[in-house]
């Protein structure tokens, strides 16, 4: 009855931080679904390697860019504008973290993390708005998908204070942008739990078994999990959704139980 309900064939997307981790998984999923994909990363060599690997799945272009600065965001958008007249999907995925003890946590950890994790999604969305508006139709608006984290929903067991605060900010920024940009641009967020990535490498080594045991589905995330969520939010199936934050964590943040001492 609805043959194209989840189709994103022929669309164009930009995925920041797409050279590794969750961004790489998102890029792969969109390519497999028939989307022309641009990825960005700070490191040119990482961009080139990811472009080479991902090209087996579809049309991909990697553009080195530092989105933590306004100049970097502007340069990236200008590169897209030289190649495309419209952009259907913007995935604000680029992120960084910092972890240490409370007493040793430095001010610079706030500047670096908030610049990449919070300021960049706002600035890039603002600068890319004309391209997104060009792609938008009344029946199928353009999409912005922000990648948050369950660390912005529940208190993490790590000293990543600026990271968890930044992801909570991303979730609320998503709602604010959704109110501002609707109806021509729909803005939603995904809050991933544990996925195999460089950012999660140490936690998975140290407490990976505990995370798997605590999860109702008894595993960590896979490429198809994040790809499926992004394709859904990019497709006609989600045109009645904006301002939502979707936990994608196997139930870690949504089924957590508290056992009181003495019970």
Outline of this structure?
This protein has helices at 21-32, 44-54, 70-83, 107-135, 161-181, 201-214, 223-234; strands at residues 12-16, 36-41, 60-64, 89-92, 142-147, 185-192, 245-248.
Keywords:
7 strands; 7 helices; alpha/beta; 43% helix; disordered C terminus; Rossmann fold; 263 residues
Can you describe what's shown?
This protein has helices spanning 21-32, 44-54, 70-83, 107-135, 161-181, 201-214, 223-234, and strands at residues 12-16, 36-41, 60-64, 89-92, 142-147, 185-192, 245-248. The chain is an alpha/beta fold and 263 residues long. The protein has one domain: 3-Layer(aba) Sandwich (Rossmann fold). The protein has a seven-stranded parallel sheet with strand order 3-2-1-4-5-6-7, sandwiched between helices. Strand 2 (36-41), helix 2 and strand 3 (60-64) form a beta-alpha-beta unit. Helix 1 crosses helix 7, helix 3 runs parallel beside helix 4 (107-135) and helix 4 (107-135) packs parallel to helix 5 (161-181). It is globular, with a radius of gyration of 18 Å. The model is unreliable at 258-263 (pLDDT under 50).
Structural class: alpha/beta
Number of E-type strands? 7
Q: Give a quick account of the main beta sheet: strands, pairing sense, barrel closure.
A: 7 strands, parallel
Q: What would CATH call the homologous superfamily?
A: NAD(P)-binding Rossmann-like Domain
Which overall shape is indicated by the principal axes computed on the Cα atoms? globular
CATH class: Alpha Beta
Going by CATH, the architecture would be: 3-Layer(aba) Sandwich
Average of the residue pLDDT scores: 92
* SSE topology string: EHEHEHEHEHEHHE
The CATH topology turns out to be Rossmann fold
As a whole number of angstroms, the C-alpha radius of gyration is 18 Å
Q: How would you write the strand order of the largest sheet?
A: 3-2-1-4-5-6-7
Distance between the termini: 52 Å
User: Strand content of the residues, in percent?
Assistant: 5-15%
- Count of alpha and pi helical runs: 7
Proportion of helical residues: 40-55%
Q: What is the domain total for the residues?
A: 1
Low-confidence stretches: 258-263
